[in-house]
Design brief:
By secondary structure, this protein is mostly helical. It has one domain (about 1-150): Up-down Bundle (Four Helix Bundle (Hemerythrin (Met), subunit A)). It has helices at about 1-30, 40-70, 95-110, 115-150. It is elongated. The model has no long low-confidence stretch (mean pLDDT about 90). Pfam families: PEMT. This is Isoprenylcysteine carboxylmethyltransferase family protein. It is found in: Endomembrane system.
Length: about 170
Amino acid sequence: MRRRREVILSAGWGLALGGMFGCLVPWWLGYWQVRWSAEIALWAAVLGMVLVGLGLVPIVGAFAAFVRAGGTPIPAASPPRLVITGWYRYVRNPIYVGFLIVLLGQALIFGSTGMLGYTAVAWGIGALAVRYYEQPRLARRFGTAYAQYRNAVPAWIPRLHPWRPDRKNPV
């Protein structure tokens, strides 16, 4: 029953925030208008859709890792242990990274420089949230385990190979 609750909360939270900031706000700002010529539009749309699809992969994978760990990405319903599986072995912020890739895909689909600016602003807000809220919160909660993880796994550019905690001192 608890797992079902976590799945529903995670899916609802992801769809609400992703839908709002990944769809509704860009549409409202007028970034969802194709600006390419007909010759470029098809190729840009195909490449942009590939980026959107690729961006969704780490987002869904990260949500699944939270559910498997017994929680959700929502701070009030976070798992009891540090999530360092799946995409979190490559990058500390796979949801943010995936979201930025989705936004870049949209910028390409629509040929929108405004959407590129929106992506930069989204990254800046995400970076501030990570730096001033998430990292201190995780450091307080998980101490040395988080420090070890933070030192080994980059925040924004994924590692080429998955990180594995030290066998003698597992996280």
